[in-house]
Amino acid sequence: MKTIKLLLLLTGFGAVGYAGVSVVRAHTPGDTPLSTVRAFLDACHRHDAPGAMQMLTPEARAELHKIGNIDVTGKAGSSEMFTLSHARIHNDLATVAVHFENSDGSRDTIYCLLRQEQARWGIFGMRIPLPMNESITLNFEHPGDAFGSAMGTALDYVGKAFTQIGSEMQQAGSRLKAGP
Questions:
Q1: Which residue, 41, 43, 33, is CA-closest to 81?
Q2: CB 38: neighbour CB atoms within 10 A?
Q3: From CA 141, how far away is CA 112, in angstroms rounded?
Q4: Can you list the domains of the chain with their CATH numbers?
Q5: What is the rounded CA–CA span in Å between residue 129 and residue 137?
Q6: Rounded distance, CA 122 to CA 28, Å?
Q7: Contact present, 29 and 35 (Cβ < 8 Å)
Q8: Is 0.85 surpassed by the pTM of this model?
Q9: Cα within 13 Å of Cα(101), Cβ side
């Protein structure tokens, strides 16, 4: 039964219990965080940029429109498979983890950031995890901030990597001095 419920949720359907009987109803995009993210990713896989843009918040659509012809579908039309984790909802904000299985067998996870406005869920950003417990957040409502955030995170990451390399080199040097 858990597998059936999971399949129903991942395909945009929800199981609603009523007196011990499961009634299935379709969720339209925007009804729930999961249906919004699924519709966004489905549009991306079809390279349907207008369809993907409709899953964003109105402010995100307006800000990206100011920049110009932005294709939010990226490389998502490739053969990557994805699954969605449950939505973590707090008031009018939600986060949905998207787990990708790449064609080479590797796995990646990104997090879609959503906000509910006027009873409709829309994506306003994405958080992309990096090594060493770092991440980059792309806020579509403030796209100019993404560059500064990405550069700051990248520089922090490089600094931590050099610190770790330096520490390992110092330990190796100490071991060499101590001799066999």
A1: 41
A2: 22
A3: 13
A4: 2-178 (3.10.450.50)
A5: 9
A6: 12
A7: yes
A8: no
A9: 5
Token representation of residue 162: 């050099």
Which amino acid belongs to residue 63?
E
Written as tens digits, the pLDDT of the chain (180 aa) is 333 332 333 333 333 222 333 333 445 777 899 999 999 988 888 888 888 899 999 999 998 888 776 666 665 545 567 889 889 999 999 999 999 887 888 888 999 999 999 889 999 999 988 887 888 888 889 877 765 555 566 666 566 666 667 666 667 666 667 766
pLDDT of residue 59: 93
- Phi, psi for residue 67 in degrees, rounded to 5: -70, -35
Q: Give the 3-state secondary structure of the chain.
A: CHHHHHHHHHCCEEEEEECCEEEEEECCCCCCHHHHHHHHHHHHHCCCHHHHHCCECHHHHHHHHHHCCCCCCCCCCCCCEEEEEEEEEECCEEEEEEEEECCCCCEEEEEEEEEEECCEEEEEEEEEEECCCEEEEEECCCHHHHHHHHHHHHHHHHHHHHHHHHHHHHHHHHHHHHCC
